[in-house]
């Protein structure tokens, strides 16, 4: 983590703004709040910086395990990277203990705009550890964690300056989801992200906008809709159909970091910006290659209007180093005169 943010004078603008203020700004502009989802491995600093260049108002880190974050300097340094001018950032914790979450919140508070409790990850390993979607059946525990995180922020002098939020999935019986929301709201959750799939619903199945709309109508705090946001028009349509205050994109932003700026496919300059950010905040080469491969497009996702041709994409997946990747991108740029 970067001590410059703790010791270096004024708080950077991105960290100074309260997330709820961002909701107010988006509402004043008559649009939803645009956010990027917490994605395992992929929501690293360079990617967060890139999407922030193209209209994302609020970014999420990947889920970080609070217990390991508390106990290991190596875990803190490898799991979370920031900079002296970060975009507004929510750090998502995987936690099942109020004490562990409070301690982790105190450690991270100077570096982020808020913390988020993951109650949505459907992966079996997470649920086996009573993390992620398993917490949807432990609403009182989640409420206790919200209370503990809020108290930790207050103790560190951040009361009213940073948020505690919860990201959920829906139950098959929406009455359970309604009870969950009521409980975490009463505990002080500042806003809620609603993924419109149950724990067992495959990502290939459409998100339930009806479920999101029903749950959003019951809340007294701002809400975000998560799921199936692949274009700016889909973001606007989901907002209109569900009545939420903002939307969260995952796979759509991987394919097109400029999604919320209105680009219908990834522009070349988004690749360049991402690569420039990677140089300053390195991530493993295979992750860099995956990001660029996603941005290069696929005939499935972009119906022939891909950033790279099929031949260029075949060459892309065969590169073995950053130097080879940069050389290939420079070659393509030269040929296209971009």
From TrEMBL:
InterPro entries named in the record: Aldolase_TIM, DUS-like_FMN-bd, DUS_fam, tRNA_hU_synthase_CS
Cofactor: FMN
Organism lineage string: Eukaryota, Fungi, Dikarya, Ascomycota, Pezizomycotina
Molecular function as annotated in GO: flavin adenine dinucleotide binding; mRNA dihydrouridine synthase activity; tRNA-dihydrouridine20a synthase activity; tRNA-dihydrouridine20b synthase activity
Recorded superkingdom: Eukaryota
Enzyme class: oxidoreductase
Active site positions: 121
Annotated EC: 1.3.1.-
PROSITE patterns in the cross-refs: UPF0034 (PS01136)
Protein name, entry field: tRNA-dihydrouridine synthase
């Amino acid at each position: 983590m970067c001590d410059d943010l703790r010791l270096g004078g004024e708080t950077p603008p991105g960290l100074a703004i309260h997330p709820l203020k961002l909701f107010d700004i988006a509402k004043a502009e008559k649009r939803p709040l645009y956010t990027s989802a917490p994605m395992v491995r992929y929501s690293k600093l360079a990617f967060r910086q890139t999407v922030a260049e193209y209209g994302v108002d609020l970014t999420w880190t990947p889920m970080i395990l609070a217990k390991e974050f508390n106990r290991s300097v190596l875990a803190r340094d490898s799991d979370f990277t920031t900079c002296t001018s970060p975009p507004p950032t929510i750090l998502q914790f995987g936690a099942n203990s109020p004490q562990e979450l409070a301690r982790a919140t105190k450690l991270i508070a100077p570096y982020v705009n808020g913390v988020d409790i993951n109650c949505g990850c459907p992966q079996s390993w997470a649920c086996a550890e009573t993390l992620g979607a398993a917490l949807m059946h432990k609403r009182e525990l989640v409420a206790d964690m919200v209370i503990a995180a809020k108290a930790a922020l207050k103790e560190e002098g951040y009361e009213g300056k940073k948020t505690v939020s919860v990201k959920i999935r829906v139950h098959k019986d929406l009455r359970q989801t309604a009870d969950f929301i009521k409980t975490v709201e009463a505990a002080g959750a500042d806003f809620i992200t609603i993924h419109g799939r149950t724990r067992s619903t495959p990502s290939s199945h459409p998100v339930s906008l009806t479920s999101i709309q029903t749950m959003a109508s019951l809340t007294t705090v701002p809400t975000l809709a998560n799921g199936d946001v692949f274009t700016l028009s889909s973001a606007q349509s989901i907002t209109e159909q569900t009545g939420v205050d903002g939307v969260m994109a995952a796979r759509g932003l991987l394919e097109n970091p400029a999604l919320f700026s209105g680009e219908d496919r990834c522009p070349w300059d988004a690749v360049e910006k991402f690569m420039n950010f990677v140089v300053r905040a390195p991530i493993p080469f295979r992750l860099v290659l995956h990001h660029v491969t996603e941005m290069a497009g696929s005939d499935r996702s972009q119906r022939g209007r891909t950033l790279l041709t099929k031949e260029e994409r075949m060459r892309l997946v065969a590169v073995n180093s950053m130097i080879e990747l940069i050389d290939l991108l420079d070659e393509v740029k030269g040929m296209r005169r971009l």
